[in-house]
Amino acid sequence: MADALLVVLRKVAHSLGQGALERIGSEVVEVAPILTDFEHSMKQIQGELSILHAFIGQVGTHKDGDKAFDAWLDQVRDVAHEVEDIVDEYAYLTVQAVDTGSFLKRKFHQIKNFASWQKLPTHISQVEARIQRLTEMRNRYGIVVGQLERSNVFKQPDQLCMSESAYLTDTSEVVGNIDEIGRLTQWLLEEKQDRTLISILGMGGLGKTTIASTVYKNQKIRRTFDCHAWVTLSQTYKAEEVLREFINQLIDQRESMASGFMTMSRMKLVDVIQSYLWDKKYLIVLDDVWDKDAWLFLNYAFVRNNCGSKVLITIRRKDVSSLAVDSYVIELRTLRYDESWELFCKKAFRASTDNVCPENLVSWAKKIVAKCQGLPLAIVIIGSILSYRELEEQVWKFFCNQLTWQLANNPELNWISSVLNLSLNDLPSYLRSCFLYCSLYPEDYNIRRKQISKLWIAEGLVEERGDGTTMEEVAECYLMELIQRSLLQVTERNAWGRVKTFLMHDLVREVTLIIAKREKFGIAYGDTDSKIFKKDHWVALVLQNFMLRNLTLMRSLGIIEVQQSYVVELWNSLAEMPNLSRLLISTCDINEILNLKALKPIPTLKLFWLAGKLEGGILPLIFSDKLTQLKLDWSGLKKDPISSFSRMINLVDLWLFGAYVGEQLTFCRGWFPKLKSLQLADMEHLNWIEIEDGTMTNLHLLEFAGLRNLKALPGGIKYLRTLHQMFLIDMSIEFIKRLHGSDFHIVQHIPNIHNFDSSDSQTVHDVIFWPYLAKKFGPGAIKYASTKRGPSGS
């Protein structure tokens, strides 16, 4: 039900736990006597919300179309948002109040925030009053929100109609999945004594039922078996009803009625099916199996009699498909575009000769088909609806542009949203909010696993499990479960098979966005600008967490638009993050100057990217010896920084982009023993690079970009025997001439040398540098870096 409120409740638990109220009492009570009353009010609302939490846990999925319930639920969500505001304000003021700074500083914060403390008790009272009114309103209008009788709440006639419709599909209209149908046919006809369990896996609407019915109705297959039955389980099947349906299909109906099957217990019904199937070769189809328990129970009824029987199940969850042993699993994919077009034309233009799309509708028809992204259910339903519309361009244009609205409001499209909603409604609350969050990304957006995990954690959507499990590991478990449920589609895996990127099907996203908006979870604006919070709210939240020290499990962090005014507080907060290993800091613009001289190194850092001018052009002592990757952008350094970096014996990657305004760089013997990648770019005054024998003994990649004043190859490159690739981008004509002439002997040992002029430099970065940034920091790093390199790199 109100999953947003569950998130708030978790935030309350975190904020009020571990003696937070006691700290408030001891540190802030001196500000004003009103804080004592405030502490009491916070305890009261904590108790109230705890009871609400337990109450909400008992509430099942509400009936579609219950307008009174929907209106009441909207009010509940409003209260949830009010509570969240109170919790955020409370957490912020709490940290301010227990600031470990000087006495005067602590008093200043207490006086400054006194007005805010005064408002909180009033806000709490108002929320408590609203909760009371919601209870009264529920009783006054007879709104049912508790756990109802399952047969009343969960009965979904539309779902039965959808299964029957797919089952009744004419096999001549089936498009695509030829290989899958062939494999299923082969498995069902193969001679094998033991009973075989076969599963068809895929997201809702992919055509699992249609494919199953195609092979089930195949007369050659039917003749192979002594008896057969087809039953749809759905999410809320009743075991007795399912067993009786099997008996009705397997045994003569008059005999079943006469034998009193309607009043038999569950176990007696199992006995009847076992007895009947004992010596028969049977074919059973279980359509729409949602969990393993359903099969584990029915498994007792379907005897293993060594007659070569087959059981075919259709499922949405990959963990359930594992029931089928010996790789008897068909995992469906979306249709190819040519298959989608063929299926759409069969449905939309069935009245025309050869199902041909009229010329005036081709562009809009193609847009509609593309929107369906190969989902057969959507293609069939939308195509069927349009087959009754006028073949006029304006009519089809209007339908295409209004497709999102149509999904939410057109009863003819209820099947699509109903099928997709079944998977969403099956989600537990801790997964539901995370899934809604994914819908706020732009359509066709490849979401990175590492990025989404951090965002879920930052938004409070991930629960702490204790037992040494990190929040990142919990978030990854969430993601894997959503993928297992066929709700998210993996688009890229790393070399070890681990998920790197994934996306949400367009129509799944459209339906989920409708829910996210209705539940006031979030709104996506446009196709390329999805927003979850306003920027100022997000910045305030980040600064609050820094205070300005709550992110103790943070491992990777990127902060842009940094100003000198809060560098010290920021650095103090970073020092309180014992797990921080990757850090990106960028100034608000290229002219902002950072003074970092008084700051100490952060010893846990392994990757550090600093973008911004440094005061006086002097390199501060903020770089840890443990760094393996370092990048400096437009730092304006006046003194050769290489000697300062030389003590970093663990450095693997070094990038200097417009970081040095001097003329010479020197790499001395014994320096950088582990360095594998060196990139020097956009340093307009650099005219000499000294490389001594015995330096950078493991260098694999060397890149010079935009060093227009460097006229000749550094002679010491000949000492870099491990160098495998060299990229030269936008270098001077004289430099390139000498490369191919008098200086070639310096680089003749390098197997791969790539030379690009200024027009190709962006291509090189697209191929090499930007993918690396995206891998480390997520796609946002590319957008950031491409706009922050400054005039010489643009």
Topology:
Layout lengths: L2 H14 L3 H9 L5 H24 L9 H31 L5 H10 L1 H27 L9 H4 L3 H11 L10 H12 L6 E6 L6 H9 L2 H6 L2 E6 L6 H12 L2 H6 L7 H12 L4 E8 L2 H10 L8 E6 L2 H4 L7 E3 L5 H12 L13 H11 L3 H11 L6 H9 L1 H7 L4 H12 L3 H10 L8 E2 H10 L12 H14 L4 E5 L5 E5 L2 H13 L4 E3 L3 E3 L3 H12 L9 E7 L4 H9 L6 E6 L5 E2 L12 E5 L1 E2 L14 E5 L8 H4 L7 E5 L6 E4 L9 E5 L6 E4 L9 E5 L19 E5 L3 H8 L3 H4 L4 E5 L4 H17 L2 H9 L6
Parallel strand pairs: 1-4, 1-5, 2-3, 3-4, 11-12, 12-14, 13-15, 14-16, 16-17, 17-19, 18-20, 19-21, 21-22, 22-23
Antiparallel strand pairs: 6-8, 7-8, 9-10
Helix pairs in contact: 1-3, 1-4, 1-23, 2-3, 3-6, 4-6, 9-10, 12-14, 17-18, 17-19, 18-20, 23-25, 23-26, 24-25, 32-33
GO molecular function, one term: ADP binding
Keywords: Leucine-rich repeat, Nucleotide-binding, Plant defense, Repeat
Pfam families: NB-ARC (PF00931), Rx_N (PF18052), WHD_DRP (PF23559)
Structure summary:
This is Disease resistance protein RPM1-like. The chain has 794 residues and is α/β, with parallel strands linked by helices.
Taking all Cα atoms into account, the compactness measure Rg is: 33 Å
- In quaternary terms, these chains amount to single chain
Number of helices: 33
Gap between N and C termini, in Å? 50 Å
Domain count: 5
Q: Kindly report the CATH topology of the largest domain.
A: Leucine-rich repeat, LRR (right-handed beta-alpha superhelix)
Structural class by helix and strand composition: alpha/beta
The number of distinct β-strands equals 23
Secondary-structure arrangement, i.e. CATH architecture of the largest domain: Alpha-Beta Horseshoe
Largest sheet: 9 strands, parallel
Which strand order spans the largest sheet, edge to edge or round the barrel? Answer: 11-12-14-16-17-19-21-22-23
Helix content: 40-55%
Q: β content, as a range?
A: 5-15%
Going by CATH, the homologous superfamily of the largest domain would be Ribonuclease Inhibitor
CATH top level assignment of the largest domain: Alpha Beta
InterPro entries: Apaf_helical, Disease_R_plants, LRR_dom_sf, NB-ARC, P-loop_NTPase, RX-like_CC, Rx_N, WH-like_DNA-bd_sf
Domain Disease resistance N-terminal: 20-98
Family: Belongs to the disease resistance NB-LRR family.
Keywords: Leucine-rich repeat, Nucleotide-binding, Plant defense, Repeat
